[in-house]
Amino acid sequence: MTAINAYAAFDAKAPLGPFTLERREVGENDVQIEILYCGVCHSDLHQVRNEWGGAMYPLVPGHEIVGRVTKVGNQVSKFKEGDLAGVGCFVDSCRHCPSCQEGLEQYCEEGMVGTYNSKQRNGRPEPTYGGYSSQIVVDAAYTLKVPENLELSRVAPLLCAGITTYSPLRQWKVGAGHRVGIVGLGGLGHMAVKLAASMGADVTVLSTSPEKEKDARELGAHHFAITKDKDVLKGLSRTFDFIIDTVSAPHDLNAYLGMLKRDGTMILLGAPPEPSPVAGFSLINGRRRLAGSLIGGIAETQDMLDYCAEHNIMSDVEVIPVDYINEAYERMLKGDVKYRFVIDMASLK
Questions:
Q1: Residue 300 falls within a domain, yes or no?
Q2: In this structure, are residues 305 and 86 in contact, taking their beta carbons and an 8 Å threshold?
Q3: Is the Cβ–Cβ distance between 274 and 255 less than 8 Å?
Q4: Rounded CA gap, 180 and 186, in Å?
Q5: For every one of its 349 residues, what pLDDT tens digit does the chain have, with 9 covering 90 and above?
Q6: Angle, CA 305 vertex, CA 303 and CA 308 arms, to 5°
């Protein structure tokens, strides 16, 4: 076992602070990664404050991890020391259920093992600890190869915000000739705009904040609409082939469903804390579909990283030292970040 430095939450109300944890020794199928950057996802905040329940303290968040490989197991051929590597939202799964066999480990029918705050499958009693730390040891099968041509701090959020938006765009084969609405322009929304536009879709950002129009267009959106305006909503009736909904706050799904063309699909990526009512006729009138999507499997996440490298797509980030994390959480609650905080893990040393 190796003792390493980390930042952790010790209960639901206390600020995060320094913590020492132990990582397992590198097994024959493992890679050891020196963490260089770790993105800050809104789900980190939810779990730290136990808003979803099941928090296991001390809790070390972080599932948008990039760094350098410092050691590899003797059965690993995919990586060598010095390679760039990434770790996303999960580090293990059952490997034998239909979803795992199809490369859809995120839907593992026995439950994927989250990168943090998750029970391990190897029998170890402690929970998984995430990327707010100096080092991590991960099975090579659940580790991503990070392209060398991208700015590393801006790659980290791709491992959650990037794949969360890339996966449904690929699943529904979004491309040229499609009109796509993006609800919300935050960490997920800004990636959805970049990716959908790069795939050739005609992109409209649907927002309640007029001041976001300039940013939306700079990110690649072709149109911008204020959804507080009822006349605007009426004018968008039956406009879109797809709507990507990235908002986690309560909002009226029926208003957006009415913007879909016949046979259009609205895909939920955000998860409001309370159930959202859906009127039957919002779907029946137009044979519309309401769907959901969760991150991506390992193969698809690698495809996403390679696609972003080819098209020079990265997240827009604000890099922070680790001891700023509590202030960053408060700013994140206010939407005061463009568009993802990323921790420079050198600051932990």
A1: no
A2: yes
A3: no
A4: 17
A5: 778 999 999 999 999 999 999 999 999 999 999 999 999 999 999 999 998 899 999 999 999 999 999 999 999 999 999 999 999 999 999 999 999 999 999 999 999 999 999 999 877 888 999 999 999 999 999 999 999 999 999 999 999 999 999 999 999 999 999 999 999 999 999 999 999 999 999 999 999 999 999 999 999 999 999 998 888 888 999 999 999 999 988 899 999 999 999 999 999 998 887 888 999 999 999 999 999 999 999 999 999 999 999 999 999 999 999 999 999 999 999 989 999 999 999 999 7
A6: 105
DSSP state of 44: H
**Is residue 176 located within the same domain as residue 130?**
no
CATH number, domain at 223? 3.40.50.720
- The encoded tokens of residue 240 equal 């879109």
52: CATH: 3.90.180.10
How far is Cα 163 from Cα 174, in angstroms, rounded to an integer?
Answer: 15
For 199, the domain range is: 162-292
Q: What is Dmax (Cα atoms) for the chain?
A: 64
CB contact at 8 A, 270 and 184: yes
Preceding omega of 58 cis (within 30 degrees of 0):
yes
| 7 and 151 co-located in one domain | yes
Dihedral sign for Cα atoms in the order 166, 171, 174, 178 = negative
Q: What are the phi and psi torsion angles at 45 (to 5°)?
A: -65, -45
CA 13, 15, 19, 21 dihedral sign is positive
Residue 151 shares a structural domain with residue 14: yes
Reading the block at residue 241, the tokens are: 């082939």
Integer CA distances (angstroms), 277 to 67, 250, 254, 256, 323, in order: 43, 10, 8, 13, 41
Whether residues 123 and 251 fall in one domain: no
Token couple for 97: 């259920």
Q: How many CB atoms lie within 10 A of CB 3?
A: 9
Task: Give the burial string for 192-203 (b: 16+ CB within 10 Å, else e).
Answer: bbbbbbbbebbb
Cβ atoms of 79 and 72 within 8 Å: the answer is: yes
Q: Please, which residues have CB within 8 angstroms of residue 209's CB and are 6 or more apart in sequence?
A: 185
